[in-house]
């Protein structure tokens, strides 16, 4: 039987504010607290640092091969006072939150897009929306335009919504996250996955045998 | 009351036992005076313990106060013993709650500054002998102890005492002047050597060439130059944060004392010389921060000069600038300055690399440096160590600027720039927030 108070719960506005005040939860900067902190979530803004993906540069992306990042990606920094980002239909860019986020060991986050933008066709953080406890850094996310027309995005606009869940017990920081302490959006680090190494070796070693068995 | 005294005496005797044991690692020429002192003190304390039950309350309180001072002094000796072996200089960092604690410790008179008592937050630095001779006034009951403390000139305990206000560890910017004080100890180490002689000669020559009508004792100019050189060393090690902190905290010091030029003159000299003489030493990566720093105090500098300077002081300042201009062209001096910076870095590294079991203090800066300098550490551990500072400095651009060079210094050994990214990112976010608040009309800046 689960004891009362021991199960996971979504943090409310007051709890978020209290954690921020106590500096157990770091979200920096919150430019407009009233506008950003909602009843059970907090809005996050688009940072000035963006990664553009250049699909034309390489034929395909093979996670088992080293992705040649310079050919595949381009880091840009938008001037928050002048620049804008025009997102064309079916295009994908990597952005990050303006806010530097640090979650304590007992808080798990879920980053989602805002419905106002979704209605324009803009999908933010299309998948893998979970932010692990103890994560620290800017949160990178994908921005996709699924709509039929180009949409202009400006740095510092509210693009994402972070919902925070309190865990029944805190997790110690033993696992190092690939994207911890990030200060700019990172392209995929999928090639660093340890199980992909195994898959690669598996294919090298037993590829022919498996084929025979089939 | 006598029971408190009894307890205090027992505690001091325990401390003396500890000193006996740790002093074994101290070179014999330092150990002899320590053992002699402890022997005298031990006998006196045992005598006091035997008779204290008959003391009046007033007498007990009086002795109790002196024993507190003595206890602190024993701490100094104990720590000196702990560290004496591993460095040819020992820097003693003492953290005091307030000026009054220092007063209690050394029975020091309050500073009287233009009719009002100035509770100083400056870091105090005294050579060991001066400390013993001038400030440890224990004539009455403890005269035998005082006499045993008078070291002969041939026995020099190369210990410098740097007093740090208790709040300092919680204010990283407060650590910056420590480097200036450490530079003094290096300078004085060289004072009998070529640097001081060279300075003397150069200044004598320059005063004649520049302004032979101006009557000012050369020794005063040498004092001023020592301050300026220590400022240069500190700003070289710490970047603009040092000068920013100096100006912010001590800009009210606008008078010319025998030892120190006023703060605005020091700031301006360092600002002028910095780019010319220290560019290739380090900190060129911090040039943008330096610009921010200069812009910050330039306007106020003009105002201070206009308001506070007499004609005589103006001439003095001009003379000092001329001397500095000439001095920085002297290759030998420049080389010495650079070598002192390197020596200072070595001292800092030696301090922070001591073994864990010998670690006596828990000063955050040195913990940071220690963590950062130890090789083979994961950078995330260093980041974790620094985390509380980053968190406590959100939006405070001044402290961020002050912290940045410290952090950059701390990671320099590892050639890992993750922290620098983090610092610059913090500054970037801070600027965005300031701009946002400005547009929203919340902040006037």
What is the structure about, briefly put?
The complex is a heterodimer of chains A (about 210) and B (about 450). Chain A is an alpha+beta fold and about 210 residues long.
Structure description:
The complex is a heterodimer of chains A (214) and B (445). Chain A is of the alpha+beta class. Chain A is 19% helix and 31% strand. The radius of gyration of chain A is 20 Å and the shape is globular. The N and C termini of chain A lie far apart (48 Å). With 445 residues, chain B is mostly helical. Chain B contains 18 helices and five strands. In chain B, the strands form two sheets. In chain B, strands 1-5-4 form a three-stranded mixed beta sheet. In chain B, a hairpin with a 2-residue loop joins strand 2 and strand 3 (116-117). In chain B, helix 10 (240-250) packs antiparallel against helix 11. The longest helix of chain B has 28 residues, at 57-84. Chain A binds chain B through residues 23, 26, 28-29, 31-32, 48, 80-81, 98-100, 138, 156, 176, 180-181, 183-184, and chain B through 380, 383, 391-392, 394-395, 418, 421-422, 424-426, 429-430, 432-433, 435-437, 440.
Record keyword descriptors for this entry.
heterodimer, A: 214 residues, alpha+beta, six-stranded antiparallel β-sheet, five-stranded antiparallel β-sheet, 5 helices, 19% helix, 31% strand, B: 445 residues, mainly alpha, three-stranded mixed β-sheet, two-stranded antiparallel sheet, 18 helices, 68% helix, 5% strand, extended
């Amino acid at each position: 039987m689960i004891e009362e108070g021991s199960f996971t719960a979504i943090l409310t506005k007051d709890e978020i504010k209290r954690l921020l005040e106590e500096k157990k939860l770091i979200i920096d900067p919150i430019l407009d607290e009233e506008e950003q902190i909602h009843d059970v979530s907090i809005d996050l803004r688009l940072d000035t640092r963006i990664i553009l993906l250049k699909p034309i540069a390489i034929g395909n992306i093979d996670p088992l091969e080293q992705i040649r990042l310079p050919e595949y990606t381009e880091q840009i920094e938008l001037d928050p006072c002048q620049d804008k980002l025009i997102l064309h239909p079916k295009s994908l860019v990597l952005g990050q939150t303006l806010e530097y986020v640090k979650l304590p060991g007992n808080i798990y986050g879920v980053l989602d897009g805002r419905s106002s933008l979704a209605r324009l066709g803009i999908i933010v953080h299309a998948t893998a929306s979970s932010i692990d406890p103890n994560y620290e850094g800017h949160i990178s996310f994908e921005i996709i335009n699924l709509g039929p027309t180009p949409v202009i995005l400006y740095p510092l606009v509210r693009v994402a919504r972070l919902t925070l869940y309190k865990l029944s017990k805190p997790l110690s920081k033993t696992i190092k996250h690939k994207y911890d302490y990030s200060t700019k959006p990172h392209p995929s680090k999928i090639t660093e996955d340890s199980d992909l190494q195994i898959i690669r070796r598996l294919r090298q070693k037993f590829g022919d045998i498996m084929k025979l068995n089939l | 009351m006598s029971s408190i005294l009894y307890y205090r005496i027992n505690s001091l005797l325990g401390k003396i036992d500890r000193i006996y044991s740790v002093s074994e690692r101290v070179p014999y020429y330092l150990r002899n005076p320590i053992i002699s002192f402890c022997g005298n003190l031990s006998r006196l304390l045992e005598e006091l313990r035997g008779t204290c039950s008959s003391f009046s309350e007033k007498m007990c309180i009086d002795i109790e106060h002196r024993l507190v001072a003595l206890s602190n002094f024993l701490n100094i000796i104990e720590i000196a013993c702990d560290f004496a072996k591993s460095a040819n200089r020992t820097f003693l960092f003492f953290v005091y709650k307030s000026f009054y604690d220092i007063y209690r410790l050394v029975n020091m008179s309050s500073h009287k500054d233009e009719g009002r008592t100035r509770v100083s937050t400056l870091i105090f630095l005294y050579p060991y002998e001066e400390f013993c001779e001038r400030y440890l006034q224990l004539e009455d009951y403890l005269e035998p102890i005082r006499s045993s403390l008078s070291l002969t000139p041939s026995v020099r305990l190369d210990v410098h005492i740097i007093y740090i206000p208790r709040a300092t560890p919680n204010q990283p910017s407060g650590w910056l002047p420590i480097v200036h004080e450490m530079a003094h100890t290096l300078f004085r180490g060289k004072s009998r050597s070529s640097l001081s002689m060279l300075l003397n000669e150069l200044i004598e020559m320059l005063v004649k060439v520049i302004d032979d009508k101006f009557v000012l004792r050369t020794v005063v100019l040498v004092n001023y130059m020592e301050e300026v050189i220590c400022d240069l060393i500190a700003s070289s090690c710490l970047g603009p944060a040092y000068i920013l902190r100096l100006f912010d905290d001590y800009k009210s010091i606008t008078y010319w004392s025998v030892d120190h030029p006023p703060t605005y003159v020091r700031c301006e000299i360092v600002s002028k010389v910095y780019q010319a003489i220290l560019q290739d030493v380090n900190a060129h990566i911090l040039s943008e921060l330096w610009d921010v720093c200069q812009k910050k105090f330039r306007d106020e500098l003009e105002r201070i000069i206009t308001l506070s300077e007499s004609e005589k002081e103006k001439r003095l300042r001009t003379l000092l600038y001329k001397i500095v201009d000439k001095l920085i062209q002297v290759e030998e001096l420049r080389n010495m300055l650079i070598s002192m910076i390197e020596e200072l870095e070595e001292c800092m590294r030696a301090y922070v690399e001591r073994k864990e079991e010998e670690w006596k203090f828990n000063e955050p800066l040195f913990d940071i440096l220690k963590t950062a300098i130890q090789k083979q550490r994961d950078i995330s551990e260093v980041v974790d160590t620094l985390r509380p500072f980053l968190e406590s400095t959100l939006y405070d651009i001044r402290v961020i600027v002050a912290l940045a060079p410290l952090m950059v210094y701390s990671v320099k050994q590892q050639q890992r720039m993750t922290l620098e990214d983090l610092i610059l990112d913090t500054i970037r976010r801070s600027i965005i927030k300031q701009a946002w608040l400005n547009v929203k009309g919340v902040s006037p800046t």
